[in-house]
């Protein structure tokens, strides 16, 4: 027997229509690439999105066409999220931090026919142009007066929008149609394409906004620092429209001062970003003595949330929460929202739970398995390889041969983790980064987080170095805070009461700049190259 309900498709255009009906006066604010602050309402954004959609159709964008965009978090890229997907085409957000070689690779691999870009990236696109023959038209996301120098024919975004008509008749199609695609950061081989459906995006939006996740609602002011080219800014352009949150886009100014100015001027209550972003802002606050008068909560993801950040922001009245996920998961898989019984604990006990990755969103199923493939219990003690499945999780990579899932239909995340009886996930390490010493596994994440508690440590990375007796031992690599002084022995002594003896690093080395990947993660591959012939002290 089947239910007797209407069979409406879950499309992102329904999020746009819903927001315009119910939250039309809510603002969307941008610090533009050109400089000035731009602000308009959701109602005004809908009219521009309709005009852009009509103009794209007239430009020849067909259903299924890939439309590339290289840009900052701005209202123009926000408009593209809805206009491109709404006509049945696929928005391919290109990460400029991939570098020219990988950026060119993903554009060709996705077969982008159109490429939109912010002025900042005009030199990159100009250099790529001869190497991306699939692209038929290039569009600068600006006005005519700010048009960049560019070899050959160049369309102007604002002129394209003005050519379109309002009240565009949005097409209906299957909710499993592709809406957007992102590529992995390419830290281990060529970047891999992940294609999201309208259905997966809408489900992610509902799950992400729950009180047990991001907890967004009308009255919140959201500033996503995480880029729109990094897994759809963790779904922010869609989630915010679902609940009517005001959106504030920071444009290219992602330094501590630039973010602080936007936080205060627009009264931002919630933000999201990777640890390096949160660290930079915290250093700015500590250096200037300024306060955060409106920010109440933040989500930190991309890599493990250090205890030092949780403590640092608590002093400013901000609750920083861990979020975990992957490009392959749309992306949010878990968020650490403490239940009342844990929230009421004293701070020193509570923080032991706050550093975990949290509980799974609805429709995200998780399990841990042994190296032999045995499913392990969720007892908070045994760790294993983390695998996931659900309607927002990848089934196959784009145009990639070979098996993506396990034989019984799970996606292996590449993380080593444990899960407790209450469903709290704790990532102990990436499987490729775990340090095997004397038959035991040592978590590089635990050492890094402990090191970041040292007052002189700005950034920390840990790798395993070959040892004649123990197979591998930890090497801690540190970037000092500006003006701070410390020594290797002082840092090692500092860690002794914070780590098990087996995890004490055998050496500490200081470098001027930490190698970071396209999404702000510490590049362990580069650290291994830098210290490839390193000899541990006797």
What does this structure look like?
- The chain has 538 residues and is α/β, with parallel strands linked by helices.
- It folds into 3 domains: 12-252, 3-Layer(aba) Sandwich (Rossmann fold), CATH 3.40.50; 361-430, Luciferase, domain 3, CATH 2.30.38.10; 435-530, GMP Synthetase, Chain A, domain 3 (2-Layer Sandwich).
- It is 29% helix and 24% strand.
- The chain is built from 17 helices and 25 strands.
- The strands form 5 sheets. Strands 2-1-11-10-12-13-14-15-16 form a 9-stranded mixed beta sheet.
- Helix 5 (122-128) links the parallel strand 5 and strand 6 (137-140).
- The model has no long low-confidence stretch (mean pLDDT 95).
């Amino acid at each position: 027997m089947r239910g007797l309900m209407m069979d409406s498709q879950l499309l992102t255009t329904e999020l746009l229509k819903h927001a315009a009906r119910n939250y039309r006066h809510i603002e969307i604010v941008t610090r533009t690439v050109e400089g000035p602050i731009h602000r308009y309402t959701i109602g005004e954004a809908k009219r521009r999105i309709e005009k852009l959609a009509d103009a794209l159709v007239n430009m020849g964008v067909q259903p299924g066409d890939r439309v590339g965009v290289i840009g900052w978090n701005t209202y123009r890229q926000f408009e593209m999220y809805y206009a491109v997907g709404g006509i049945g085409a696929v928005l391919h957000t290109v990460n400029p931090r991939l570098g020219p070689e990988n950026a060119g690779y993903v554009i060709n691999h996705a077969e982008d026919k159109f490429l939109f870009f912010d002025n900042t990236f005009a030199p990159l696109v100009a250099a790529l142009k001869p190497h991306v023959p699939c692209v038929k038209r290039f569009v600068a996301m600006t006005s005519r007066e700010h048009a960049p120098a560019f070899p050959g024919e160049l369309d102007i975004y604002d002129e394209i929008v003005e050519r379109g008509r309002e009240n565009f008749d949005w097409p209906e199609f299957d909710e499993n149609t592709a809406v957007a695609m992102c590529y992995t950061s390419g830290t281990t081989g060529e970047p891999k394409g992940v294609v999201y459906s309208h259905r997966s995006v809408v489900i992610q939006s509902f799950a992400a906004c729950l009180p047990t996740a991001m907890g967004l609602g009308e009255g919140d002011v959201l500033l996503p620092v995480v880029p729109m080219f990094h897994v759809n800014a963790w779904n922010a352009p869609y989630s915010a429209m679902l609940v009517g949150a005001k959106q504030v886009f920071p444009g290219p100014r992602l330094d501590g001062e630039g973010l602080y100015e936007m936080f205060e001027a627009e009264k931002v209550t919630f933000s999201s970003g990777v640890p390096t972003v949160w660290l930079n802002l915290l250093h700015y606050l500590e250096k200037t003595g300024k306060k955060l008068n409106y920010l109440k909560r933040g989500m930190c993801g991309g890599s493990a949330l250090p205890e030092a950040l949780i403590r640092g922001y608590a002093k400013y009245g901000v609750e920083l929460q861990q979020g975990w996920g992957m490009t392959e998961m749309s992306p949010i898989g878990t968020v650490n929202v403490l239940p009342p019984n844990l929230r009421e604990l004293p701070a020193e006990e509570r923080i032991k739970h706050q550093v975990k990755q949290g509980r799974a969103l609805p429709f995200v199923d998780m399990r841990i398995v042994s190296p032999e493939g045995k499913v392990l219990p969720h007892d908070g003690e045994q760790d294993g390889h983390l695998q996931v499945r659900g309607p927002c999780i990848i089934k196959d990579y784009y145009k990639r041969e070979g098996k993506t899932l396990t034989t019984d239909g799970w996606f292996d995340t590449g993380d080593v983790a444990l899960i407790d009886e209450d469903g709290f996930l704790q990532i102990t390490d990436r499987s490729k980064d775990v340090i095997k010493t004397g038959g035991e596994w040592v978590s590089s994440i635990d050492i890094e987080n402990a090191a970041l508690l040292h007052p002189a440590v700005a950034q920390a990375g840990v790798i395993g170095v070959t040892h004649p007796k123990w197979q591998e031992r930890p090497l801690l690599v540190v970037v000092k805070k500006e003006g701070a002084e410390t020594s290797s022995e002082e840092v090692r002594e500092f860690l002794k009461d914070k780590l098990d003896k087996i995890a004490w690093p055998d050496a500490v080395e200081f470098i001027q700049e930490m190698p970071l990947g396209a999404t702000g993660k510490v590049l362990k591959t580069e650290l291994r190259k830098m210290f490839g012939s390193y000899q541990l002290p006797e």
